User: Fold these one by one.
Assistant:
Number 1:
Amino acid sequence: GENVEQHPSTLSVQEGDSAVIKCTYSDSASNYFPWYKQELGKRPQLIIDIRSNVGEKKDQRIAVTLNKTAKHFSLHITETQPEDSAVYFCAASQPRDMRFGAGTRLTVKP
Amino acid sequence: EAGVAQSPRYKIIEKRQSVAFWCNPISGHATLYWYQQILGQGPKLLIQFQNNGVVDDSQLPKDRFSAERLKGVDSTLKIQPAKLEDSAVYLCASSLGRGFGEQYFGPGTRLTVT
């Protein structure tokens, strides 16, 4: 089955800096790659996603890049703000299965 | 639009007892998922329904876990008997179409097994 690895497990940045979280996946059949933000005690919220026929997608301060050949994808957050502090999960899915990474705890220091 | 509803929000039981969780997805969403999220880990997919049929339950511990989605709307997940390692948050999610697309998660049920 699919295996998703996520790095780093914790990330601390100064407000205004950029943050990058990286994930690798094992199954070349995976074709949908969402990123979720989960604040303490709350439900995961989709922040951006990308499909395998696209290499990059941006939404304001958030971008995701996908390298299908290398089987890795990354989340980029620019101009970080304290409210970006949360746990971020990547995931890789096929029609019948979705596997999540272990999560990255992002702390943005004011 | 109303979100995914789950109940109860919290449950504490002793090991070997039984427990059931309920989920009502967003109206019109054909696909429903149950996830288990152990503290400090990412969600783990337990079972996926497409309307009232099971699409995938390969990670569901079928000796103790069962789930159903009668009439293709709301769903229940049952654990019988519970073990200490079942302590987790159980998340229900739904999406509009087939396969995985934008999923909307419910608030979850936090289960503690003592």
Number 2:
Amino acid sequence: RKEVEQDPGPFNVPEGATVAFNCTYSNSASQSFFWYRQDCRKEPKLLMSVYSSGNEDGRFTAQLNRASQYISLLIRDSKLSDSATYLCVVPHQAGTALIFGKGTTLSVSS
Amino acid sequence: DGGITQSPKYLFRKEGQNVTLSCEQNLNHDAMYWYRQDPGQGLRLIYYSQIVNDFQKGDIAEGYSVSREKKESFPLTVTSAQKNPTAFYLCASSIDSNSYNEQFFGPGTRLTVL
């Protein structure tokens, strides 16, 4: 299994839809995970941190399944402004850096 | 305003020339990182520094060099030994190198080698 793997998409959804992305990771000892959002030609910005079973922030919910070693990101009531690439991030084996997935691209249309 | 600055935003160089990318942070963070991003690819770690005067190679360090003489500065030199230097370079920092900590990114430098 790769250190971190994401479905690249693109996911094309209409406004108001619910969409979910999955991310698998290989380091079973990982304790912290992140979802970052990256807009086209911009730097990544933190969307959510996941330290236990999950986290919720408004329309965004991140869930962690340690047994199956995957993290999911659920976006409810999609907005046009949610169109971006979502990066799954897990700790490096050495624990001193982060590994970024290649990202899942979301396109929300009206 | 606290944050990370990178300059320049766009940089063009001729093949065979070394070039240094600037990264400065005023967040008082101990750890700093350099990543490279190619189209359709994830971020790949070039070098990181956990503390002043110390740095470690990341996954793709060949052809790059760094220094960390000051806490707030972590410049990256792309040498002529780097085979495919054209890419989007991102600098990041975090409170420390513990993997629980969020990394904050600068706006990036797009390097094009002609």
